Amino acid sequence: MNTTSLAPLNPAALAPPGRRNVLDDAHVGDIHGALGTLRQHDALPRSRRRRLLALLAIMGPGLIVMVGDNDAGGIATYAQAGQNYGLTLLWTLLLLIPVLIVNQEMVVRLGAVTGVGHARLIIERFGKFWGAFSVGDLFILNFLTIVTEFIGVSLALGYFGVSKYLSVPIAAGLLIAMTMTGSFRRWERFMYVFVAMNFVAIPLALVSHPHLSPIVSHALNPGVAGGFNSTSMLVIIAIVGTTVAPWQLFFQQSNVIDKRITPRWINYERADTVIGSVVVIIGAAALMIAAAFAFGGTHLAGQFVDAGTVATGLAHTLGPAAGALFAVALLNAAIIGAAAVTLASSYAFGDVFRRPHSLHHGVSQARLFHGSYATTVILAAGIVLIPGAPLGTITTAVQALAGVLLPSATVFLLLLCNDKAVLGPWTNPTWLNALASAIVGVLVILSAILTATTLFPSLDVTTLSEVLFGALGLGLAAAGAYAWAGRRGPSGPLDRPAGFRAPPGADRALWTMPRLELLERPVWSRTRTIGMYTLRGYLVVAVLMLIVKAIEVGIGH
After folding, report:
1. What are the b/e assignments for 255-267, b being 16+ CB within 10 Å?
2. Which of 105, 146, 286, 540 is the least buried, fewest Cβ under 10 Å from its Cβ?
3. Burial tier of 159 (Cβ tally within 10 Å: 0-12, 13-18, 19+)
C-alpha cells in the first residue's frame, strides 16, 4: 500500500466558513483510497513524486464511473454498431469525450464543495416536484439498466455453457457481498480489478486484424452506413446513452463525497475524470473495431441479435479465443456496471431519506443504504430469469432511454453549477456554460430526430438534421447575445440569491457551501419555468416514441 506522507498544516487554517455540510459523519476524515492514503490535514504536495502519490490515492471515482459506463449494455451497443454499421459510427465516440469530461467535471465540483449528493441538492434547491421528476427518472432508468447488466451476465456465462439460473444468482450474491464489507478501500480495490479487466477489449480488437487507414477515416468523418434513418438514430442515441448516462452524475458526486475529497483536491479528481474518459473511449472503440472487422463482408454483417450471438459469431469468424475474450469482456462489464449503477441508486436513497449512506458503514450502521442495494440487485436479477424475454431489444432500448433522458439531467446539473449560493467561487465560467448548453441542444436534437422519424418514417433525416442544427446554432447565438447584454445589468435571483455573500478574499480551496437548509431557494423566471415544463412534456413524448421504435425493431420492422 502506498501512503503519502505530507507535512501537516495547522487544522485551524483549513477550517471552512462552517462545518463541512455532510449528511453522514463517515464522509469526513482521511482519504483511504485503493492505492494510497491522504490525511485530512495534509498539505498540498509540491514535488512531482508526491503529486503522483496524491493522484494515486485520490483516483477512483472518475475512473470507476467511466469504466462502469462500459457496462453490459455498452458492450452490446458498441458491438451492434460495429456489426451492423461497420466503422461508420466511430466518430460518435470522439465527440463524446468532451461531453464526458464537461458533465463529470461539474459533478466533481458539486461533490467536493457541497458535501451533498446530487439527489438532495435537486430536491432542496428546486423543490419536491422537480426532485421527484429528476430522481424518479433516475430510479426507473437505473433499475432497467441493472436488468441489462444481469442480461450481460447470463449471456456471457451462457457462452461457456453455464445456466443463467446459476450464473445470475451467483453474480447477484457477489455484488451484494462486495458492497457490505464496511470498507471504502476494500470496495475500491474490488472495482480496480474490474477496471483492469476492461483492457481485454484491446487484444480482442488486435485479433480482428484491423487496418489503421479506414479507422482514422471513419473516426474523423461523420456518417453512417445506409444513411441516417430512425433505426440508425436509435443506435446513435444508444451509443450516447450508454457512454454518457444520467446515473454517472449521481454516482460520481456521491462517490467523491464518500471518498472524503474536499475542494483542495479538486484538480486531482479532475485528472482522475479525464483519465477515465480516455480509458472508456479506448475500450468502446476497440469493441466497435473488433466487431466491424470480424463481421465485415460475412453473412453475419448487419445481423446483430444480442451480445451472446456476437460472442458466438466472433468464435465463428475469428476463432474460439475471440469469442471467449468477448464473453469475458461482457461479464466484467456487467459486474462493474451493476456495482456502480446500483450504488448510484443507493446513494440517492440515502440522500432522499436522509439516512446514513456510505461504503465506510457496515450493514448495522446503514440498513437503508445496504438494504436498498441488495433489494435492487435481487429484483433486477429475478427479471432476467423470466424465460423468453427479447434481451437484445431490451438492452438497446434501455441505452437509448438513457440518451433521451440525459438532456434533462444535464439541465439540472447546469442550474446547480450556476447557483452561487451552492458553489460560491466554484460556479461555472461562461465558456463552460456555453459548451454545456450546446451539448444539451445536440442531445435534444438527436432524440427529436428519433421521435420525428418514428412518427414519419419517410422524412429525409439529412434535411431534418440540417434544419434542426441550424436552428440550434441561431438559438445559441441569440442566447449568447442575451447573456452578454445581461452581464451589464444586475444579476438575477438564480445567479445571486438573497442572503449570499462571498467571503471577502476567500480562498477557493477552503470555501465550502454553507448549511443547505439555511439557503434561500432560487426563484425561477417565467421563461425558465415554461422552458422546464416544455422539456418535461417533450421528454414524455420522446420516451413514448422510443418505446414504439424499440417494439418495431424487436418484431423485425
Report:
1. bbbbbbbbbbbbb
2. 540
3. buried
Reported as type and span, the H/E element at residue 105 is helix 90-114
Q: What is the C-alpha separation between 508 and 426, in angstroms, rounded?
A: 7
Helices 526-554 & 391-417 angle (0-180, nearest 10) = 170
| CATH fold label, 63-385+405-497+514-554 | Amino acid/polyamine transporter I (1.20.1740)
| Dist. CA 430–CA 383, nearest whole Å | 46
Distances in Å between the Cα of 370 and the Cα atoms of 116, 205, 366, 444 are: 19, 38, 6, 35
CA dist., res. 375 & res. 91, Å (int): 39
Which residues lie below 8 Å from residue 474, measured CB to CB, with a gap of 6+?
none
- At 227 the pLDDT is 78
CA distances from 501 to 56, 498, 514 (A): 36, 9, 11
Give the CB-side neighbour count of residue 108, counting CA atoms within 13 A: 25
Block residue for cell numbers 422546464: 532
Distance CA 172, CA 549 (A): 31
| CB of 79 closer than 8 Å to CB of 287 | yes
Phi, psi of 515 (to 5 degrees): -55, 125
Cβ-contact 289, 322 below 8 angstroms: no
For residue range 477-491, what is the model confidence (pLDDT) as tens digits? 877 777 676 554 444
Three-class SS of 400-435: HHHHHHHHHHHHHHHHHHCCHHHHHHHCCCHHHHHH
Can you read off the three cell numbers belonging to residue 82? 460495429
Burial of 375 (0-12, 13-18, 19+ CB in 10 A): middle
The identity of residue 200, as a single letter, is: V
pLDDT at 12 over 70: no
Which residue has 476492461 as its cell numbers?
Answer: 198
485: three-class secondary structure by DSSP: helix
User: What CA–CA distances, in Å, run from 244 to 89, 234, 410?
Assistant: 16, 15, 10
CA dihedral 330, 1, 44, 270 (to 10 degrees): 0
- What's the whole-model pTM score? 0.83
Which stretch of DSSP H or E encloses residue 33? strand 31-33
DSSP percent split of the chain into helix, strand, coil, nearest 5? 70, 0, 25
Picking from 80, 69, 76, 93, the residue whose alpha carbon sits closest to that of residue 216 is 93
Q: Mind spelling out the 3-state secondary structure of 300-315?
A: CCCCCCCHHHHHHHHH
Which of 419, 417, 421 has its CA nearest to residue 501? 421
> How far apart are the C-alpha atoms of 155 and 162, rounded to whole Å?
9
Q: Residue written as cell 448516462?
A: 245
Going by the DSSP 8-state scheme, the letter that residue 228 receives in this structure is: S
d(C-alpha 105, C-alpha 79), whole Å:
28
Residue 477: the pLDDT is: 80
As a residue count, the chain comes to 557
Under 8 Å between Cβ of 406 and 249:
no
- What is the Cα–Cα distance from 361 to 347, expressed in whole angstroms? 12
Written as nine digits, the cell of 113 is 464543495
CA distance linking residue 194 with residue 338, whole number of Å: 12
Q: Which of 350, 492, 343 is nearest to 415 (CA)?
A: 492
